[in-house]
TrEMBL record, chains A, B, C, D:
Its EC number is 4.1.2.48. Keywords: Lyase, Pyridoxal phosphate. This is Low specificity L-threonine aldolase. It is an enzyme of class 4 (lyase). Its cofactor is pyridoxal 5'-phosphate. Signal peptide: none annotated. InterPro entries: ArAA_b-elim_lyase/Thr_aldolase (IPR001597), PyrdxlP-dep_Trfase (IPR015424), PyrdxlP-dep_Trfase_major (IPR015421), PyrdxlP-dep_Trfase_small (IPR015422). Belongs to the threonine aldolase family. It comes from Chryseobacterium taklimakanense.
Length: 357, 357, 357, 357
């Protein structure tokens, strides 16, 4: 992976380069701005007790058909992960994640900073299976000299673009219940997962199969915001304290409530994710046409084509993206991410470039 | 103090009540929304490496006349406090605060959750003086059985509306340097402090006298955002890691950069704070006219008039505010906060009510 | 208080000075050494699963007439305090202590280092009363912006030598149950408390009135060791993990088990404490005879006579002790501590010195 | 690995079984008991400021020929690991360990509980090499989204009985200096490493090549105790605070000082370790004679012969040990540990049993 620091300093707006580096390069969907303008001067209570947050919670409860679920809005994914996990675990308990899991490598030790071990597991496709977790349990039987596994962390879609099938999530859910483990789904890209061409899960089913999850806004058209949905009533108690203690309780929580209200009231949320996926699939098709392979087969808004170094150089002249993984001396896999904001013209233009390779 | 939970659930927008409960009841200054619209579709780097954050940092460096200062934008005050303090302290070091300091009682143990003790000090007016800190040092000489004091936390304006004079801050700064303590200013309401009628400090002087401080946006016209300014170069090292680890690094950092750029480019920031102060001073004058006293004498956007219970009842019929402190069986002090958004008509209408008391 | 660091470097064994500085200046009661010799080569399981720890647990269960209590042996008081408190509290919960409580000032931030706030309360005599705790609860109603109090920490005897009466402990216990607070007694000097001339509590009653407590060995004839007794079954679960995680699980736990077995099998533990108390009371009587007053009235093994500076100088020529608190320009209170090892000759010799004052 | 809990409850002293389960099944070397008796009633300062600790520090400084090194005595290995690592690291920094490292799996998350990530590395023989660490550094370049590696943790002898050669430690030391990493050696069995038949390192060389290490007493004839030696002056500052804060500062530190003084004054420490190694090597030779292989080739006091299940059953009738790892359906590796207390008769008797296999 390239060093994001140097990469990030590369300022793509001063050039003509279009960026496929991530799905948070733009601001937010225009309807959100309109709604912010309309509501701007209405006085509201602070700390997530405004009308918009309360309505947005009701809306999510309806969509998952569970009025007992509790919903909390916070600003980002790492924050959601550390608050949920540290609120659930006792000091000697740990969390299991895929090696590719965001909490394992990309949060600067955020979970460990709350006092808990994260077990990394090698996976083929970024998805955890019961056997992966069982192997961790099997080598942690030396009580009380080893930590107790208590939370299983999964991402859907995963950090490498794959999505869980209903069967896979059902098996994981059954396994966790049987082993007295909590199942937590990082849904920073849940919209993309649930609108992927191969997906057979509904939001309601996700809510039935996990103990807690979140609906990501930041990567799907919001300025900021993730909606944490706590389904398991045992985990709901006093959650507000944890949000406040970690510095995640916005004085103007309205900013979060308004956005989710707008994104969810008519499924704009899923339309935007579906759009991102479709744009990625067009690129995938174009790469396949020229006989190029992929690091992992994906159906959401991230693709990882494997290209020759000179092909990468060519594409890099007019487009910005990450070189994800070196395959060998001649080849590397690159990562291309599309978003709610990726226009057709861009995709068409890029496909022409691919054909030229 | 009333229980904010029950209070907050009281939904003031469904009634005609106008709220003086806090300075974050509205959205943001319209110019910020305009700027968000203009910049919305420009692609930018994530994590605070966008053009707006970089420009806003330069702008602040110019305003404090210190190009070596480092600026980081995050979403809220509790977050700023816990990140700054935990990044500075070693495990056995502690922070000194007034009992009224936000970190001491109103952050749900956020500082302790990062592993550090907060020493509370009784003060007359919410402001720390060298003698207050010396008294803490004097009873912590039993090395290594007691924590080592290393950071002094002050708020300007304070949580009870008072402001530091140049002489007071100079003395505190000299004392801290002499005792090898870092001086950290919580500037959630720094704009209000620096535009208070009694203020004799400039922003540049504040930056010269403290090691680290922040400029609050949330309570002064922004949707969210505080600008942490690290003046002491020893404290600048690797600060980004701490922001990320605490879940405070926004993917769309642009949201913060754009707001501070807009607020600071032509001193809108100070104009908004001055407006809030003026509105509060008009109310103060009206209360003085009817011979009412105050819990503390303030010149910023918070006032604490002491009223008879029946007078409080009357005002409460059409206005929302907190009853701050019970004085005796007949009297209590209430807290009224004005903001950048408090219109003249509201103030005039309220003054009429005061006169009727 | 004098600076213990410099004080401690003063090496009293190279002079003829006898030390009243604390009750852990000597090794251990000879019977413990005999028992260590007898058992030395017997092979035993590690980590507190040896025969001696298991028998000592049974013995304590019998003494408190509660076979369901769980007993864990660790090496010291600060360790006992941090493990018990951090195992009980969730991240947003806090503990209430007297300002004089060991956890508040003398453990180098050990409790905060586990993430929890310690509320300090001013007391007349080092003992907490329901009203003291109620006052803390009263100013922490702003949910979820303030921490939730969950544990009440008391010491018996206290750090200033006072002891709880049955009535006082009963009231505290009732109050805590009513407020859903756990009551934790630091018993580093519990032997001294229960054998004090004014005491009317039994060990069994202590175990009935608190949720968890410990029996101190270090200050009462053992080489090291405190026996944590968890009475409340809710707090017993998985406690071993916490001991291990904090580095407190001795590979040779037998060292702790053997000592408590020897101290408790025939009440040697209480005989040693009673001896220490009696020696202190002889000194107290002598000081009273010469009309000297005391900082607090005590009946256990610590006394705090208030003396003129020149009198302190005289005593200091041949004896080592701490000057505890300056009373005024002419007077200070000193602290004298006696122990299981303080011989009659020493006491008699010292009484002669007192009479000469 | 068998579940140590159930294993441990198996009480070997009630049977004729001799235990090879670990090297802390007995008390301590008789000379230590004699010394405890001699010194028992001498009054000493508390908290490690007694004469014995001060002398023992000098003795260690002489043995490593470094008068500037600082020595601290604490009770156990997990405690030493967590205190050293948490005192060195800033919040965003991490430690690298072999998967077999004690801190990675056998300390119930003690390091993570202090807020830091432990990176596990696969190794052939429990020893870290520069390339292993470089691979961790290579995948953590995404600043500041990933933790910063700062400490390298190694054990000598390792948890699986192997020892570092001078060349290996020199290479590791050079690498760490070059990468600005601190090298920390867990010496719970350092005596055994330095007296192993294949060892070519001296204690002085170890002290020159690492930044901090400890000399283990618990597993080499002491009742309890590890001597932490801080060579790097940057890491010495205020270390006492960390010991106190973690509850590791014994009131009667004398207990630790006396033991190390006795073990080190005439190299008893190394004689005991050499004895343990020799006894293990005799068993190793016997197993080799019957053509049995080993999980890892060791020259210290731990051996891991691979046996058929029925052979294990036979040995288990009269001896206690751990079945370490299943090799296949027919075979497993067992762990046998000898100690300073393992007598020749036991070894001879056991060798007869091996021959019968």
């Amino acid at each position: 992976m390239l060093n994001l620091l140097t990469e990030n300093f590369y300022n793509n707006t001063k050039t003509m380069k279009y960026s496929f580096k991530n799905d948070y390069s733009e601001g937010c969907h225009p309807r959100i701005l309109e709604r912010l303008i309309e509501t701007n001067l209405a006085q509201q209570n602070g700390y997530g007790l405004d009308e918009y947050c309360l309505e947005a919670e009701k809306l999510i409860q309806q969509k998952i058909n569970n009025p007992k679920a509790k919903v909390h809005f916070i600003s980002g994914g790492t924050q959601a992960n550390l608050i949920v996990i540290s609120s659930v675990l006792r000091p000697h308990e740990s969390v299991v994640s895929a090696f590719t899991g965001h909490i394992f490598t990309n949060e600067s030790g955020a979970i460990e900073a709350t006092g808990h071990k994260v077990h990394g597991v090698e996976t083929a496709d970024g998805k955890l299976r019961p056997q992966d977790i069982q192997e961790v349990l099997d080598v942690h039987t030396n009580i009380p000299h080893q930590v107790r596994q208590k939370v299983v962390y999964i991402s859907n879609s995963t950090e490498i673009g794959t999505v869980y099938s209903k069967k896979e999530l059902q098996e994981l859910s059954d396994f966790c219940k049987g082993k007295n483990l909590y199942l937590f789904m990082d849904g920073a890209r849940l919209g993309h997962a649930l609108t992927a061409e191969t997906n057979d899960l509904t939001l309601e089913e996700v809510a039935q199969l996990v103990d807690v999850f979140y609906l990501g806004g930041t990567k799907n058209g919001a300025l900021i915001g993730e909606a944490i949905v706590i389904v398991n009533e045992k985990l709901q108690e006093e959650f507000g304290f944890h949000i406040k203690q970690r510095g995640a309780m916005l004085a103007k929580g309205r900013l979060l409530g308004i956005q989710f209200l707008e994104l969810l009231k008519d499924d704009l949320y899923f339309k935007l994710a579906a759009h991102a996926n479709q744009q990625a699939m067009k690129l995938k098709a174009a790469f396949m046409e020229i006989g190029c392979g992929f690091l992992t087969e994906t159906f959401s808004n991230q693709i990882f084509p494997v290209l020759k170094n000179d092909q990468i150089e060519k594409l890099y002249q007019n487009y910005d993206f990450y070189v994800w993984k070196k395959i060998d001396a001649e080849k590397s896999a690159i990562r291309l991410i599309t978003s709610w904001a990726t226009q057709d013209e861009i995709i068409e233009r890029y496909i022409q470039e691919i054909k030229k390779l």
